[in-house]
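hiii, so i know i said id send this last week but things got crazy w the move. better late than never?? heres the sequnce for the chain we talked about at the cafe, plus the structure i predicted for it. fair warning i was half asleep when i ran it
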Amino acid sequence: MTGMTGRPRRAGFTARGRGFLAAGAVLAVAGVVLGFEDIVRVGVLLVALALLALVFARRPAAQLTVQRTVSPETVMPDQRAQVDVTFRNTGRRASALYLAEERVDYVLGDRPRFVLPRTDPGGSREVSYTVRSHLRGRYPLGPVTLHQRDPFGLTSCTRSIDGVGEVLVLPRIVPLGSSHPPGAGLGSEGETPQMVALHGEEDVSIRGYHDGDDLRKVHWPATAHRGELMVRQEDRPARRSATIVLDSRESGHRGSGAGSSFEWAVSATASIVIRLEELGYQLHLATRESMVTHTVEGARDAGQLVHDLASAEVGADLEFGQLISHAHELVRFGGLVTAIVTAHDDSVIGDLAAMRQAGSAALGFVLDTDTFAGAGPSPQARAVRDQLAHAGWRVVLVDARTSIPQAWATVSNRALVQVGAL
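okay and structure toks below
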């Protein structure tokens, strides 16, 4: 991460310098009035010294550039990162002695301050500092501000070196154990389509027969081989698909900081993304950011999705309804649906419930956000849970005391029969 050369610097008198000017002017005037030439000389000397210091401070400065290297490039909350800052003198004159101050977000801690020694033309100086954040996000580093004073402390000079770096703090990811959602998440909830080749045929995608399947798609060689009725599934990929929907309505979330309902939702989304990739799912993430950048339609790997979640923010209520409309296109051919939602408005829950396709699994995490603000349980959250459960979703009600592994273990419990009882 590289910075540009510095902006023009600003030089002015310090309190001491203004005192010298005032004292010199008073002495000069008093000496003239009283007729004491020695006092006039002292006054002129003080004024001249201050003015010469100002001229010296405003002389052309050396050309400096800055380069930052963050190690590691991405960190988790409460993990330290080291920032190495390298200053290079690209000009023809040596730089002065500076007191440097790096501008950083308050979440990362106090602004680092360090002394930048004199640097000859073509030379470089390197300083390091550490940062740590307890909240996810993208945090800028810089620009660097350089402060200089003359030897008498009469003037101060400030210049800024353009260019910023970045510290990327990923959402907190928690392991979800060995449990996994029921079914394959594509077309059938019972098993994953398989690719087989029998008697010299090309590979085809097959699965077990279900009531209502077209008998013309029965794959007789596979049926004879397996001893059960098997059908072709030529219009669907063999890899399982999953769509994860994140409710980011600002009016629906409660709490602040790392203990807010939105941070719980983002952390849960990131953890589920990692777990589903481990299980071989093709991932689609539906958030307000992905809708704005038009990437909600494309499948992406878990690492990219977690990076995107680092900068997830709350938004307007209207955006969530639009997001569900976009997400419907992703699941029109089936696939696992996972949604982390609030109970703010029931009007869009019906559209969300309809995302579950026949034969596919759907997992719902309904956040009782009032509990994240210290209030009691919300009847509206239970109503949303029941509405999704009646649509065939596996649903869990999440309050401020519910951990992400607990919630995941509940909705992925394969022995669960009464989904509405969660």
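btw The chain has three domains: 1-169, 194-232, 241-421. thought thatd interest u
miss u guys!!
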